[in-house]
Design a protein that fits this description.
six-stranded antiparallel β-sheet, 6 helices
Protein backbone atom coordinates (compact mmCIF):
# COMPACT_ATOMS: atom_id res chain seq x y z
CA UNK A 1 0.00 0.00 0.00
CA UNK A 2 2.81 2.39 0.96
CA UNK A 3 4.69 1.52 -2.24
CA UNK A 4 1.59 2.15 -4.37
CA UNK A 5 1.11 5.55 -2.72
CA UNK A 6 4.65 6.65 -3.51
CA UNK A 7 4.38 5.34 -7.06
CA UNK A 8 1.18 7.35 -7.56
CA UNK A 9 2.78 10.46 -6.06
CA UNK A 10 5.79 10.10 -8.38
CA UNK A 11 3.46 9.73 -11.35
CA UNK A 12 1.51 12.87 -10.41
CA UNK A 13 4.76 14.82 -9.96
CA UNK A 14 5.90 13.70 -13.41
CA UNK A 15 2.65 14.88 -15.00
CA UNK A 16 2.92 18.13 -13.05
CA UNK A 17 6.44 18.74 -14.31
CA UNK A 18 5.33 18.06 -17.88
CA UNK A 19 2.46 20.52 -17.49
CA UNK A 20 4.71 23.21 -16.02
CA UNK A 21 7.28 22.70 -18.76
CA UNK A 22 4.76 22.94 -21.57
CA UNK A 23 3.02 25.99 -20.10
CA UNK A 24 6.24 27.84 -19.21
CA UNK A 25 8.44 27.29 -22.25
CA UNK A 26 6.51 28.31 -25.35
CA UNK A 27 7.80 27.35 -28.76
CA UNK A 28 9.02 29.78 -31.41
CA UNK A 29 6.66 30.28 -34.33
CA UNK A 30 7.17 27.75 -37.12
CA UNK A 31 10.30 28.47 -39.14
CA UNK A 32 11.28 31.41 -36.90
CA UNK A 33 14.82 31.90 -35.64
CA UNK A 34 16.85 34.72 -34.12
CA UNK A 35 18.67 37.17 -36.41
CA UNK A 36 22.36 36.63 -37.03
CA UNK A 37 23.22 39.88 -35.25
CA UNK A 38 21.46 39.34 -31.90
CA UNK A 39 20.49 36.63 -29.44
CA UNK A 40 17.19 37.10 -27.56
CA UNK A 41 16.39 38.11 -24.02
CA UNK A 42 16.43 35.00 -21.77
CA UNK A 43 13.01 33.45 -21.22
CA UNK A 44 11.44 34.84 -24.40
CA UNK A 45 10.16 33.12 -27.54
CA UNK A 46 9.49 34.39 -31.07
CA UNK A 47 5.75 34.86 -31.46
CA UNK A 48 5.95 36.22 -35.01
CA UNK A 49 8.60 37.26 -37.52
CA UNK A 50 8.91 38.68 -41.05
CA UNK A 51 11.74 38.38 -43.57
CA UNK A 52 11.51 40.45 -46.79
CA UNK A 53 14.13 40.55 -49.53
CA UNK A 54 13.75 44.31 -49.92
CA UNK A 55 11.87 47.03 -48.07
CA UNK A 56 12.24 50.61 -46.84
CA UNK A 57 12.03 51.56 -43.15
CA UNK A 58 12.30 55.01 -41.58
CA UNK A 59 14.34 55.11 -38.36
CA UNK A 60 14.30 58.01 -35.89
CA UNK A 61 17.82 59.50 -35.79
CA UNK A 62 17.04 62.53 -33.59
CA UNK A 63 14.03 64.40 -32.22
CA UNK A 64 11.75 65.17 -35.17
CA UNK A 65 14.04 63.62 -37.79
CA UNK A 66 13.89 60.24 -39.52
CA UNK A 67 16.23 58.51 -41.94
CA UNK A 68 15.00 56.01 -44.51
CA UNK A 69 17.04 52.84 -44.93
CA UNK A 70 16.44 50.36 -47.75
CA UNK A 71 17.53 46.75 -47.92
CA UNK A 72 16.78 43.29 -46.57
CA UNK A 73 14.17 43.64 -43.83
CA UNK A 74 13.61 41.55 -40.69
CA UNK A 75 10.95 41.97 -38.01
CA UNK A 76 10.50 40.03 -34.75
CA UNK A 77 7.83 39.88 -32.03
CA UNK A 78 9.31 38.43 -28.82
CA UNK A 79 6.93 37.29 -26.05
CA UNK A 80 7.89 36.34 -22.50
CA UNK A 81 7.44 32.73 -21.43
CA UNK A 82 5.06 32.16 -18.53
CA UNK A 83 6.56 32.32 -15.08
CA UNK A 84 9.67 34.38 -15.81
CA UNK A 85 10.51 37.61 -14.05
CA UNK A 86 9.76 40.13 -16.79
CA UNK A 87 12.48 42.72 -17.53
CA UNK A 88 11.68 46.41 -17.78
CA UNK A 89 11.58 48.10 -21.15
CA UNK A 90 14.80 49.95 -20.34
CA UNK A 91 16.50 46.68 -19.39
CA UNK A 92 15.60 45.16 -22.76
CA UNK A 93 16.73 48.22 -24.71
CA UNK A 94 20.03 48.46 -22.82
CA UNK A 95 20.80 44.81 -23.45
CA UNK A 96 20.58 45.44 -27.18
CA UNK A 97 22.53 48.71 -27.19
CA UNK A 98 25.29 47.14 -25.10
CA UNK A 99 25.43 44.19 -27.51
CA UNK A 100 25.84 46.56 -30.49
CA UNK A 101 28.55 48.58 -28.75
CA UNK A 102 30.42 45.37 -27.93
CA UNK A 103 30.87 44.61 -31.65
CA UNK A 104 31.88 48.15 -32.62
CA UNK A 105 28.48 49.54 -33.49
CA UNK A 106 26.88 52.80 -32.41
CA UNK A 107 23.65 53.85 -30.74
CA UNK A 108 22.11 56.38 -33.12
CA UNK A 109 19.20 57.54 -30.97
CA UNK A 110 17.44 56.49 -27.75
CA UNK A 111 13.98 57.77 -26.90
CA UNK A 112 10.75 56.99 -25.05
CA UNK A 113 7.41 56.81 -26.83
CA UNK A 114 4.38 56.56 -24.55
CA UNK A 115 6.21 54.46 -21.97
CA UNK A 116 7.96 52.32 -24.59
CA UNK A 117 11.76 52.38 -24.53
CA UNK A 118 13.22 52.60 -28.05
CA UNK A 119 16.77 52.43 -29.31
CA UNK A 120 18.02 52.86 -32.90
CA UNK A 121 21.40 51.25 -33.57
CA UNK A 122 23.83 50.91 -36.47
CA UNK A 123 26.73 48.56 -37.08
CA UNK A 124 28.85 47.43 -40.03
CA UNK A 125 29.02 43.63 -40.09
CA UNK A 126 30.48 41.44 -42.87
CA UNK A 127 30.79 44.54 -45.06
CA UNK A 128 27.09 45.46 -44.65
CA UNK A 129 25.63 48.46 -42.86
CA UNK A 130 22.95 47.10 -40.55
CA UNK A 131 20.32 49.29 -38.87
CA UNK A 132 18.11 48.06 -36.04
CA UNK A 133 15.46 49.36 -33.68
CA UNK A 134 14.24 47.71 -30.50
CA UNK A 135 10.97 48.76 -28.85
CA UNK A 136 10.15 47.48 -25.36
CA UNK A 137 7.43 48.56 -22.93
CA UNK A 138 8.19 46.13 -20.09
CA UNK A 139 4.86 44.37 -20.61
CA UNK A 140 6.16 40.91 -21.46
CA UNK A 141 6.87 41.57 -25.11
CA UNK A 142 9.22 43.58 -27.32
CA UNK A 143 9.70 44.28 -31.03
CA UNK A 144 12.88 44.24 -33.08
CA UNK A 145 13.32 45.75 -36.56
CA UNK A 146 16.45 45.15 -38.66
CA UNK A 147 17.44 46.39 -42.12
CA UNK A 148 20.60 45.23 -43.88
CA UNK A 149 21.22 48.26 -46.08
CA UNK A 150 21.61 47.45 -49.75
CA UNK A 151 20.38 48.44 -53.17
CA UNK A 152 17.49 46.50 -54.61
CA UNK A 153 18.27 43.93 -57.28
CA UNK A 154 16.50 45.54 -60.21
CA UNK A 155 14.33 42.87 -61.83
CA UNK A 156 12.69 45.17 -64.38
CA UNK A 157 15.11 46.99 -66.68
CA UNK A 158 14.07 49.81 -69.01
CA UNK A 159 16.18 49.38 -72.12
CA UNK A 160 16.73 51.97 -74.85
CA UNK A 161 14.13 50.43 -77.12
CA UNK A 162 11.34 50.45 -74.51
CA UNK A 163 12.20 54.02 -73.45
CA UNK A 164 12.01 55.21 -77.07
CA UNK A 165 8.74 53.32 -77.59
CA UNK A 166 7.17 54.92 -74.54
CA UNK A 167 8.25 58.42 -75.63
CA UNK A 168 6.92 57.84 -79.16
CA UNK A 169 3.60 56.56 -77.81
CA UNK A 170 2.92 58.77 -74.78
CA UNK A 171 5.50 61.55 -75.06
CA UNK A 172 7.29 60.47 -71.92
CA UNK A 173 9.01 57.55 -70.19
CA UNK A 174 9.41 56.87 -66.45
CA UNK A 175 12.80 55.57 -65.29
CA UNK A 176 13.00 53.78 -61.92
CA UNK A 177 16.56 52.47 -62.14
CA UNK A 178 18.22 55.73 -61.08
CA UNK A 179 19.08 55.78 -57.36
CA UNK A 180 19.92 58.58 -54.93
CA UNK A 181 20.57 58.58 -51.20
CA UNK A 182 17.79 60.12 -49.11
CA UNK A 183 17.75 63.92 -49.44
CA UNK A 184 20.72 63.92 -51.82
CA UNK A 185 21.15 64.55 -55.55
CA UNK A 186 24.32 62.51 -56.09
CA UNK A 187 23.61 59.54 -58.38
CA UNK A 188 24.54 56.17 -56.86
CA UNK A 189 26.86 53.82 -58.82
CA UNK A 190 24.15 51.17 -59.26
CA UNK A 191 22.29 53.66 -61.50
CA UNK A 192 24.83 53.28 -64.31
CA UNK A 193 22.89 50.65 -66.34
CA UNK A 194 19.80 52.90 -66.52
CA UNK A 195 21.85 55.97 -67.43
CA UNK A 196 23.59 53.97 -70.17
CA UNK A 197 20.26 52.96 -71.70
CA UNK A 198 19.05 56.58 -71.75
CA UNK A 199 22.28 57.57 -73.52
CA UNK A 200 21.84 54.74 -76.01
CA UNK A 201 18.30 55.92 -76.78
CA UNK A 202 19.45 59.49 -77.37
CA UNK A 203 22.35 58.35 -79.54
CA UNK A 204 19.93 56.39 -81.73
CA UNK A 205 17.77 59.47 -82.36
CA UNK A 206 19.99 62.53 -82.73
CA UNK A 207 16.97 64.82 -83.30
CA UNK A 208 15.32 63.99 -79.99
CA UNK A 209 15.42 66.63 -77.26
CA UNK A 210 14.06 65.89 -73.79
CA UNK A 211 13.09 67.38 -70.48
CA UNK A 212 14.65 65.38 -67.66
CA UNK A 213 12.05 65.68 -64.89
CA UNK A 214 12.72 64.84 -61.25
CA UNK A 215 9.81 63.62 -59.10
CA UNK A 216 9.60 63.04 -55.33
CA UNK A 217 7.04 61.80 -52.82
CA UNK A 218 5.28 64.33 -50.57
CA UNK A 219 7.36 63.68 -47.44
CA UNK A 220 8.98 66.94 -46.33
CA UNK A 221 8.57 70.59 -47.27
CA UNK A 222 7.24 71.37 -50.74
CA UNK A 223 9.93 73.88 -51.73
CA UNK A 224 12.66 71.53 -50.54
CA UNK A 225 11.29 68.64 -52.60
CA UNK A 226 11.02 70.79 -55.74
CA UNK A 227 14.66 71.89 -55.41
CA UNK A 228 15.78 68.33 -54.68
CA UNK A 229 13.95 67.11 -57.79
CA UNK A 230 15.56 69.86 -59.89
CA UNK A 231 19.04 69.00 -58.56
CA UNK A 232 18.52 65.30 -59.27
CA UNK A 233 17.39 66.04 -62.83
CA UNK A 234 20.53 68.15 -63.31
CA UNK A 235 22.67 65.29 -61.98
CA UNK A 236 21.16 62.92 -64.56
CA UNK A 237 21.96 65.38 -67.34
CA UNK A 238 25.53 65.75 -66.06
CA UNK A 239 25.93 61.97 -66.15
CA UNK A 240 24.57 61.79 -69.70
CA UNK A 241 26.91 64.53 -70.95
CA UNK A 242 29.83 62.43 -69.69
CA UNK A 243 28.56 59.72 -72.03
CA UNK A 244 28.73 62.05 -75.02
CA UNK A 245 25.19 63.44 -75.12
CA UNK A 246 25.08 67.18 -75.87
CA UNK A 247 23.79 69.15 -72.89
CA UNK A 248 21.77 71.39 -75.27
CA UNK A 249 19.48 68.43 -76.01
CA UNK A 250 18.39 68.13 -72.37
CA UNK A 251 16.62 70.48 -69.95
CA UNK A 252 16.29 69.73 -66.22
CA UNK A 253 13.03 70.34 -64.39
CA UNK A 254 11.99 69.68 -60.81
CA UNK A 255 8.35 68.63 -60.47
CA UNK A 256 8.78 67.56 -56.86
CA UNK A 257 5.58 65.99 -55.48
CA UNK A 258 3.22 67.69 -57.96
CA UNK A 259 2.66 64.76 -60.35
CA UNK A 260 2.18 61.57 -58.33
CA UNK A 261 1.37 58.31 -60.09
CA UNK A 262 0.16 56.65 -56.86
CA UNK A 263 -1.11 57.61 -53.41
CA UNK A 264 1.50 58.92 -50.98
CA UNK A 265 -0.38 57.40 -48.03
CA UNK A 266 1.60 54.13 -48.20
CA UNK A 267 5.29 53.45 -48.83
CA UNK A 268 4.51 51.40 -51.92
CA UNK A 269 2.92 54.45 -53.53
CA UNK A 270 5.64 56.83 -52.37
CA UNK A 271 8.27 54.57 -53.96
CA UNK A 272 6.46 54.80 -57.31
CA UNK A 273 6.34 58.58 -57.04
CA UNK A 274 10.11 58.87 -56.54
CA UNK A 275 11.22 58.66 -60.15
CA UNK A 276 12.89 60.37 -63.11
CA UNK A 277 10.86 60.96 -66.26
CA UNK A 278 12.05 61.71 -69.78
CA UNK A 279 9.61 64.01 -71.61
CA UNK A 280 9.91 64.83 -75.29
CA UNK A 281 10.33 68.55 -76.02
Amino acid sequence: MKKSFWNLLALLCAFGCIFIATSTFAQDCEGCKDPALFSRMPGFHIYNSTNLEFDRIEFWVSAGKKQAVEGRYFYYDYYANEGIKQPSGLQVARNYTNAVKAIGGTVVYEYEDGGTQCAVMKVVKDGKEVWSNVEAAGNGMYKLYIVEKQAMDQAVVADAKSLAGSINTTGKAAVYGIYFDTNKALIKPESEPAIAQIAKMLQADSALKIFVVGHTDNVGAFDYNVKLAQDRAASVIAALTKMGIAAARMTPFGAGPTSPVASNKAEEGRAKNRRVELVAQ
